[in-house]
Structure formats: C-alpha cells, structure tokens
Amino acid sequence: MRDRASREISYLRLSVTRRCGFSCIYCADRQCRDTPDGELSPPEIFRITGALAEAGCHKVRLTGGEPLIRRDIAEICRGIRELPAVRELALTTNGLYLAGMARELFAAGVSRVNISIDTLNPAKFERITGRSCLGKVLSGLETALSCGFERVKINTVLLHGLNDDAASVRELAALADRYPLDIRFIELMPAGGADFSVREHFAAGGVVLRALPDLTEIPGEAGRSGVARMYRREGSPGRIGIIAPITGSFCRECNRIRVLSDGRLRLCLFGGREFDLRHLSRAEIVRVFRIASGLKPEEHGITADASGIRIPMQEIGG
Length: 318
Prior knowledge:
By secondary structure, the chain is α/β, with parallel strands linked by helices. It contains eleven helices and 13 strands. Strands 1, 2, 3, 4, 5, 6, 7, 8, 9, 10, 11, 12 and 13 form a 13-stranded mixed β-sheet that branches.
C-alpha cells in the first residue's frame, strides 16, 4: 500500500493499552490509568491486525502505555505471530516486568524488543519516570539479552539538563561496548503535561556526536535502523543510533501507521485525523486503510519550539 507521497506503508504500531506503571515527565498523561477501559480484546486485535497485514503492514510493533501490563499479552503475541501475513513482531516496553516475561514473549513469537531507559542514574531515573526501579529495568534488559531475541534496543529520550550532558551519554553508550545491542538517542517531541516545557528540555541529537567523537557512521542501508541513523565505536559489539524527528525530519521515509488501544487508526504521530476500525469487518478495515493512506500527511510540521502542542504519547505509543 502506497500513500500519496509514494511511501509504502508496511509498519503497524499497535497500542494494546493506555495503562502504564510509570509517569514520565515527557508523557502527556502523568496520571497513569489503572483500568483497561476500552481496550481492544484479543479477537478484535487479531481481526484488525490481520486485515492491515494482508493490506501490506507486514511488520507489527506492540506498544502502550506499557504492553506487559496486560495479562493476556502472551496470548496476543502468539495470535498476531500466527497471522499468515505478519512477517515480524516486535514490542516496546518500559522494562519493569520484562525480567519475568522475556522468555515467554520470545516463545510467543516476539523477535525484537525495545526497552525505554533514559538514564542509568537512579535518582534521575526516579525523577524522569516517577518510579524507583532502575534495578528491575536493568534486570529485564539482561534477561532479554539472554533469551535469543534477534535484536534488543534501548530507547533514550534526550532531555536537556537531565541526560544530555556528555557523562550521561557516555554512560549509556558504554552499554554498547558490553552488549550486542542498539542504543538509540531520540530527540524530545512535543508532549508532556502543562507543567512540562518542551522548549526548555529539548536537546538536539547532535549532543551525542559531540559526547562521542569516536563514533563512525555505518554507511548505506546497513547504517539505517528504521528511522535511526546508526554508528559504531571500534571494538564495540553494539551500535549507537540517533533519531532526530525535529532537527532531521525523516517524514519522507515514514512507512508507519498507528492503531490506538481502542481501535482508532491514526495516520501520523502528530496528525489529528483518525478512523475508527473497531466495529468494522476485515474487508471494511482494508477499504478504510486504502482511503486513509491517501490522506496521510507528507510532513509532521513540528519544530523544537512547538511547546503548545500536546501529544498523548502514553495513549498512542510514540
């Protein structure tokens, strides 16, 4: 399926819950929801995902909220992976419950796991997430690395004054010297509550290159990991990535759509247009997807000073 900008839409990011055990400062909803109100059931998930996969969305990533908060997440993973048109199943997690679930997820067909870790400093971690549980998250990372996943990635949101200093960047990057994983530093996007200033906390991806002058960019297609530009340090088993949606917009290469936890199709992270898929048949879902693809915006149009915009990251999975 191609959109009006001739981009092939092949990547579905599916939020399975709005619930989350963290209350990160850059999330639009710091009051974590406790109840599963409105969440798609497994059969609804399989119907929507199956239809979109048959229409061309062969890669599926489960997001949230925190997807592991759902007790039926392994069932959901198995069911999606058994859909004939799904070629790859990945999952993004805050890592809190990963130590106890990583092996079950791998057995259920998840091939790639992304773990959100913004700092290795316990005090800063608690300030950012609202939870004092960095040790549990790091335990989840170690368990994931031992399970056999095709790829384990760490997602770090750059926050000026909290983790964008050279020492913090180097501390996280050192994990790639020890493990065969990807660490991806991500520019802050317009989110957060009313008391959170995006403008004050924004840090450009270039701070990573200044903190790690020995990085070598990986050339060609080997140097691309989704929307990340990838780098290596000599002798390191892992890689360093920079995702720059603000200073280096990758909209021309965007191949994704999103489905929210209540079944709404969203064309762009920053685009407000949505289509309700929940009560549609598979054929109707495909028809709506074809129509929606023609309406996908060519660019998100967001800049670093767009502090008045608020995107509910917890709801739509980033």
